[in-house]
Every structure is written in structure tokens, then in C-alpha cells.
Amino acid sequence: MKFNKKNLFHYLLFILAFLNFLFVFCIKLIFNKSLKQNVVLTGHKLIGNLEVLFKNQNKYLVEIYFVTLNPIYFLKQRQIYQSYGLQNKILWALLPWHIWKYLSSKILIASHGVYFHSLVVKYLKVTTIFCGHALDGVYPVGGNKESKAIKDLQLYDEVWMYSEFEKEMYLNKFEYKKKNLVVNGYSRLAYLYENKEQQKTLKENVNLNKKIILYAPTASRNNHKYINSIFSPYKIKNLINFEKFLKTIDAVMIIKLHLNDKLSSKVKDFLDKSKYLIQAEKIKLDYDYDYLILSDVLVTDYSTIYTDYLVLNKPIIFLAPPDPNENWKYTEVIKNKYIKRLSSFNQFTQEIMNCLVEDNKEINNFQLKNMIYRNLEINKIIDNCFISINKYLIN
Length: 395
Fold this sequence. Notes:
By secondary structure, the chain is an alpha/beta fold. The protein folds into 2 domains: about 10-185 and about 380-395, Rossmann fold; about 195-375, Rossmann fold (3-Layer(aba) Sandwich). The protein has helices spanning about 10-30, 50-55, 70-80, 95-105, 115-125, 150-155, 165-175, 185-195, 200-205, 225, 235-250, 265-275, 290-295, 305-310, 345-355, 365-375, 380-395, and strands at about 35-40, 65-70, 90, 105-110, 125-130, 160, 180, 210-215, 250-255, 275-280, 295-300, 315-320, 340. Helix 2 (about 50-55) links the parallel strand 1 and strand 2. The longest helix is centred in the N-terminal third of the chain and has 24 residues, at about 10-30. The protein is globular. The relative contact order is 0.12.
């Protein structure tokens, strides 16, 4: 759960969670430092790499839990995973016995960070692994040596890399020194690879028999220019233009925002009435990454979601709205010779027709895929992740 400075309820939640953690931590430190042979996952949400690891626990005979601070999300996830028989593996950070389980696990795997990381490692000797959440599209904020993100990564026993491309970027561009980088790949890539032929089944399950465009823009960061640009999904006038075009080609567009962004009630009402524009949350899928498999083409701007989409060998269209991250320096992931961005609506509509109507296969970005993936053996990623996990569980 990401802290929102403008939400008073978040202050209460984080204070109570801190007190709960402190209480359980002290009790455990005094009376029982032993660790159980299980794993706890931590992150903003149980999606992506965390989700794939969590759902594969029975296959690999590893006991895995997920902890969240959000009470609503806690209840929702328990309900979702009841059908898997995993509802009791969802933990809430405000329950002392759940935090006891969290602090008693032998391994913590994080997609963003570990609360009180230094304390947990120093006094309880817990193994920590960073499984990643996105390929780094920007250089470390504050510089390579002073970046908080880089310093945090050095606390982990292992930092799982997307590919050799990302590892080289850390070593050569970020000047990363600690030898804890492991090229396991991201487990969500393996899921996409193993299920990329399921598009037809997914379309049947959600009753969508049209061509599907997945629009996944980067985080808006409340940037005024970005929010008011011609491709912005936050403005009804833009959605009307999208809808008119989609009607002419009989296709639908699924809008999947960054997890930190929200639509206004007016925009939501408009989308609810539209036959051609759909909020991603309105489509019920088993995995968060099923949206990528479901779609026929990806439209994005400065998001790194495209790196995952490359595994599907489907067209990707890059847009050039005003940059919401104008004070950041992009890495080669975002700025490279293979990405050509479109700046006008006419360019966008023509490119969509090239991809969908004419079924143009020349836009599959193979050079971009080779640059990002290198020689990554995608079919072995999940095996490699659980080999790493078992290595620490056994020792």
C-alpha cells in the first residue's frame, strides 16, 4: 500500500501498523528468534511477479504468504483466493499474529521495498529478495551513489534482474557495486510466454469478439500538460475522439491506468456507457497480466509495460504526449533508436489501422526485443526463481 500524504486515514493506518510491528518485533526479539520455512511477499499489490510466485506455490511445494496494509484490499484478496484455497495466505499488517508470521518467515520477497528492512535483516537474520516490479526506465534519482533506491537494493541478499541487459545497465550505467544481482528474469514474463496462445479463450470468457487495443499510459504524476494532452484518457473530449475512431474500425480499447492514477467520476460514467472504451477493472481476469494476452495491440507512451508485451510478438504503438517525468533522465529502455513515437491523432489512427485492419506484422519490434531480452531463457524463469528461494530455505 502506497502512502498518500493527502489521505488522513493513511496516517492512522501507518501509525497503527508501526505500533503493531514494534510490539511484535520486540516480543519476537526477546522470546523467539526462530524462523519458519516459508516465504512472505510484500508489495503495493499482489500483481505481476508477486502474483505469479504466489499462485505457483503449490506446484513448487513452497509455503508463500502475502502481506498488505490496506484493509479493503486484504478482504478482497482473501475472497479472490478462496477459490484457490489460498485465502489464509493473505495477511493484514494490523493483526499481531499476522505480523508474527511475517517476522517469522525465513524469506521476504519484495516488489518495491521491505518495511524496517535494516532491523529485520540485522536482528532476525531474515533473507530478503527483491523480485522487481519494472525494468528501470529512468536513472536513479539523486545520482548513482546517493540514490535511496540504489542504497536500498544493497540491503537485499539477491536482486533479481529482468535480463542481462538490465544487469549491464546497473553495473555500467548505475555504477552498482554489490554482487547481489541475479539474472533470473521476471516471473510474469514466463506466465505471458506460457499463456500467449490463450487469447481466443480469454476473449470468449469476457465476451469480446472484436479486435482489442490495450491503452496503458505511464503515471500522470498530476502533470497538467500531460493530463490535458490529446491522448489523455482523463479528458472526455479525447475519449469521444477515441470512440468515434474505434467505431469506424469496430474495435474496442481497454484503458489500463498506472496503479497510482484514478479517473474522475464523470469519465467513469462516460466509459460505463461506451460500447468501445472499457476500464480494465471492469473486465474480470484471473491474472493482472491477462490484459496483455487478451489484447491485439499495445498503445503506451513512457511506460515500461512494453518490455513485457514484447514476449507476445504483437504490435506496440508508442505515443509522444508531453512528458510527465520531464525532470528525470531516461535510460535506454525508454529512449533508444528502435522506438518511434507518434505525436498526432492522425498518425495514431493510421498506425492502428496498419496493425489491426491490414494485419501488418512488420511492427513486431524484434530488434527492440533482442535488445531488452538478450539470451534470456523465458521458459526457465519460474524454475530459476524457485531454485533461488529453495536455496535459502534449505540453508
